[in-house]
Amino acid sequence: MGCRDLTATTLVGFDFSDKDLTGTILAGADLTNANLTGVDLSGKDLTETILVGLDLSGKDLTGTILAGADLTNANLSNAILKNVNLSNVTLENAKLLDVDLDSANLTNANLRNTLLVDANLSNAILTGSDLSNAVLTGTILTGANLENVILSNTILNCVDHPICIG
After folding, report:
1. Contact at 8 Å (CB) between 56 and 37?
2. Per-residue model confidence (pLDDT) at position 160
3. pLDDT tens-place string over residues 1-49
4. Segments in the chain below pLDDT 50
């Protein structure tokens, strides 16, 4: 399936399992509930792509651009998102267990009702993000920028930051 321009294409529920998407342009596509099992997304430009309900657990998303993407209800547990651009992303109701977000850019991200358990947010930029009703248990926040973050009803059993309790 390589070298195809699928920009802004609706591919809801499409089965991409084990497909080679090298050269495929997916920016702005609607991949809601698509099957991406065995697909390498590292380095892909997924700007403003709709990834609602996807299981991206265990994926190495190093170098992936997810700015403005919609990952509502997605499972990113055990995913590697180091240095990834997640600015203006929607991760509402997402599951991020043991996820590596070291130095990720989460500026103005919607993380409402998100489960961040044992996540690494060291040196992450969360400026202006909304973490209302989120659960941060065992989450590492060493050096994280939390300027103007909304923490309404957030559970903060996190590690190594002045906002953490416990």
Report:
1. no
2. 77
3. 546 899 999 999 999 999 999 889 999 999 999 999 999 999 999 999 9
4. 2
DSSP string, 82-141: TT-B-TT-B-TT-EEES-B-TT-B-TT-B-TT-EEES-B-TT-B-TT-B-TT-EEEEEE-
Distance of CA 44 to the CA centre of its chain: 14
- Round to whole Å and give the CA distance between 87 and 104: 9
Sign, Cα dihedral of 6, 41, 79, 18: positive
Amino acid at 28: G
- Length reported for the chain: 166
Angstrom CA distances, 12 to 32, 50, 54, 95, stand at: 5, 9, 11, 21
How far is the C-alpha of 18 from the C-alpha of 32, rounded, in Å? 17
Q: Longest C-alpha distance within the chain, in Å?
A: 51
Confidence (pLDDT) at 159: 78
Instruction: Name residues whose C-beta falls within 8 Å of residue 95's C-beta, 6 or more positions apart in sequence.
Output: 74, 75, 76, 77, 114, 115
